Automatic annotation (TrEMBL), chains A, B:
Record function comment: Catalyzes the condensation of ATP and 5-phosphoribose 1-diphosphate to form N'-(5'-phosphoribosyl)-ATP (PR-ATP). Has a crucial role in the pathway because the rate of histidine biosynthesis seems to be controlled primarily by regulation of HisG enzymatic activity.
Subunit architecture: Heteromultimer composed of HisG and HisZ subunits.
GO terms under biological process: L-histidine biosynthetic process
Xref: Pfam families: HisG
Keyword flag Transferase: yes
A GO term, aspect molecular function: ATP binding
InterPro entries: ATP_PRibTrfase_cat, ATP_PRibTrfase_CS, ATP_PRibTrfase_HisG, ATP_PRibTrfase_HisG_short
Keyword list, A-Z: Amino-acid biosynthesis, ATP-binding, Cytoplasm, Glycosyltransferase, Histidine biosynthesis, Nucleotide-binding, Transferase
Catalytic activity field: 1-(5-phospho-beta-D-ribosyl)-ATP + diphosphate = 5-phospho-alpha-D-ribose 1-diphosphate + ATP
UniProt name for this protein: ATP phosphoribosyltransferase
Length: 211, 211
C-alpha cells in the first residue's frame, strides 16, 4: 500500500481536498478530536501519515512514505534528497527580507556589513546574503521572528509572508523577495523510478488536476 | 529596565507564578486573547518577552534579555553561551531512549550498530550514543517522534518524557534515562557579572524562594 506524508498546519486542508479528488479520503485528520497520526483511506488504497511540515521530506527521504506534500520553502531550506514532482498551486507565500518601517535601509544590499538578520530560514537567509556578497550574522530563531527588530536584536528578518498582516502589525516592511513558495508533491526518488505501488499513475492524475 | 525572556508552552504558567512572588506581574501573557509578545509589569520594574522555549537562550545570549527561564534540556541540546544560575524546581521531565514494547533491545547498548534513532534532540542523542561507542544514524524530526518506530523508520527514539502517557499510548517503553531536566533561570553572563540593573538582587530573591 502506498504511504503519503501529509503536513500539519496551513497546507493540511487543501492537501486533503487534493487527495479527495483522487478518491482518497483522509478527512479524518481534519477532525479536531483526532489523535491518530496514521490512517488508511476507507477504500484501503493508501495510508497517510500526519507529520510536521518540515518532517514530511524526512519521511519521504527515508522511504517511509513514497509521496508527500510540503511547501517549496521547506525544500529550499532543508535541501532533502527527494524528487520535487508537481507544483500543487496552493499554499502560496514568499520568503522575504523585512526591516522596520523606520529603518534607513530600503533594500537588503543597503544593510550594514556584519549586521544581524533573524530568521527561521537560516540556510535560505545565508544563501541570499552570500549571493549579494554582504556578510551578516544570521540569528537563528524558531518562532516570532518579528521580535528580532522590535527588541533591537537584529536590523532585519528573513521570513515567510503570505498576506503581510503580521509584518504590518509589527511595523515591518518587505524590502526583497527571495523566492515565491507553494505546495509541492514530492516523492521518494527510488520508489518513483521503480514505480512502486504504481505511484506514477497517482502522480499523473495529480498533474492532470493541476494543469 | 531589566528584560526577562519567558518561554511559551509548558513552563509558562509556573514561570509567571514565580515572578509574581517577586512582585512582577506578567499574567497578561496567560490571557488567551493576548497578542502582545512584549509587556512591562504594572509597576514598570521589568519587561518580559514571550518567546518559544528554544529561543529563550538566544535572546539572553545576545543580551536582548538579561534573564530568562528555560528547560535544562534546551541548554543541553543548544549549548548556548549563558549562565545557568538557579534550578527553579518545576517543569520536571527526563530525556530518555525508548523502543517499541515488542523490541528485542532492552537497553540502548543492545541496539544494532548503524541502526536509526529518531529525535528532536539530535545533539543529546549523538552525545549519548557516542558515549557508549555505538554508531547510530540520528533521524532529525521536529515533532511526533513516536512515529519513527511506528512507521519502521527507526529502531528507537530519544525524547522528553514527563508522565510517560505519550510513550504508553504509542506502545513504547523507556530503556535509558539520559538526564533529568527542570526549569532553569539563565542570565546574560556579562550583565550578571556587571550586575546591570541590579539583577543580582533579583537572582538572590529567586534563589531564596527555591531553597
Amino acid at each position: 500500500m502506498i504511504t503519503i506524508a501529509l503536513p500539519k498546519g496551513a497546507l493540511l486542508k487543501d492537501t486533503i481536498e487534493l487527495f479527495s479528488n483522487l478518491g482518497l479520503d483522509f478527512s479524518a485528520f481534519l477532525d479536531k478530536s483526532n489523535r491518530q497520526l496514521q490512517i488508511s483511506d476507507p477504500t484501503n488504497t493508501a495510508r497517510a501519515l500526519l507529520v510536521r511540515a518540515q518532517d514530511v521530506p524526512v519521511y519521504v527521504e527515508y522511504g517511509q512514505a513514497q509521496l508527500g506534500v510540503v511547501g517549496y520553502d521547506v525544500l529550499r531550506e532543508k535541501k532533502p534528497d527527494v524528487a520535487n514532482l508537481v507544483d500543487l498551486k496552493f499554499g502560496y507565500c514568499r520568503l522575504s527580507v523585512a526591516v522596520p518601517k523606520s529603518s534607513p535601509y530600503k533594500r537588503s544590499v543597503e544593510l550594514p556589513p556584519h549586521g544581524r538578520v533573524a530568521s527561521k530560514f537560516v540556510n535560505c537567509a545565508k544563501d541570499h546574503f552570500d549571493s549579494i556578497d554582504l556578510p551578516v550574522e544570521i540569528v537563528p530563531l524558531s518562532g516570532s521572528v518579528e521580535l528580532g527588530p522590535i527588541t533591537g536584536m537584529s536590523e532585519a528578518i528573513v521570513d515567510l509572508v503570505s498576506t503581510g498582516k503580521t509584518l504590518k502589525e509589527n511595523g515591518l516592511i518587505e524590502t526583497d523577495i527571495l523566492y515565491e513558495s507553494s505546495a509541492r508533491l514530492i516523492a521518494h526518488p527510488l520508489s518513483y523510478r521503480l514505480n512502486r505501488d504504481n505511484i506514477n499513475e497517482l502522480v499523473a492524475k495529480l498533474k492532470s488536476i493541476n494543469y
